[in-house]
Each structure stands twice: as structure tokens, then as C-alpha cells.
Amino acid sequence: MHTIHTHVINSAAPEYAEVFALREEILRRPLGMSLHNEDLSRDHTDDIMVGKADGRVIACLMLHHLDDGQVQLRQMAVYNEWQGKGIGRQLVAAAERYAAGKGYSTMVLHAREVAMGFYRSMGYRQVGDMYHEVGIPHYTMEKDLHASA
């Protein structure tokens, strides 16, 4: 397993351009979409967790405040060549520790159908039925952050 350096940035940080490029390549281009056509206002209020290796951003996710107890993990992406090496697992674990440290008790996310097994293996449970987001099946999943502490 490769170890990455994780830290939190905001949209004013120099790494944000790398985060944007990563999300565009992994999350939007394969769907024939572009972040350039989306409302990115949440990017400016979210905490952005980056995973870096060899001095560049190779993984990212966004943490969006929902209420005093809940935070939403969104827009998680890992470059293809780094997938399957434990990078996503390290990034999500770091995000959970960060969110718990900020006082959140529950992490919520909208998982693409293909990512559900990954999140289940990290202790997330499905809440509700399938729905479509960005044109593909998703499921809401959540995790009690205090149960894993």
C-alpha cells in the first residue's frame, strides 16, 4: 500500500487547480460532462481534503456542512493509476478523523452504484432507495463517526 500525505485546503489554495483537474478527469469527462458547466459555489465553502504523492494531488474529496451533526462527503476522486492501492481508503479515513474532530457525528455521501462495495467495506450503510444523479445510479450512504472512533 502506498502512503499519501493528506491535508485540508480551501478553494483559494494553489492545489485547488489540481483538485479541479482531477475531478474533471475522473468524475465528469467519462460521463461526457464538465465541471465548467456546473454550479461550483459549494467548492468555496467546503473543506477540501487532498491526498498527495510525489508532490502532486492524486486524490481528493470535499466535505460539505449539512448541519451541526452531519457532514457530506462529496466529489471523491482518485487518479486511475492510483486506484486499488489503498489511496481512497486512506483519504476517507483521514476525512472521517477530520470531521469527527470538527464535532460531526455522521458522514453522509451519495455513492455511485459501482462504489458502494468500497464504502460498505469502510462501515457505511445504505439509507433509502436508488436515485439518479449526474445521469447514473446513486445511493445515499452514511456512517456514525463515533462508532469507528
From TrEMBL:
Keyword Acyltransferase tagged: yes
Residue ranges constituting the N-acetyltransferase domain according to the UniProt record: 6-146
Gene3D superfamilies, A to Z: 3.40.630.30
Keyword line: Acyltransferase, Transferase
InterPro entries: Acyl_CoA_acyltransferase (IPR016181), Bact_Acetyltransf (IPR050832), GNAT_dom (IPR000182)
Top-rank lineage group of the source organism: Bacteria
Designated name of the protein: N-acetyltransferase domain-containing protein
Species this protein is from: Nemorincola caseinilytica
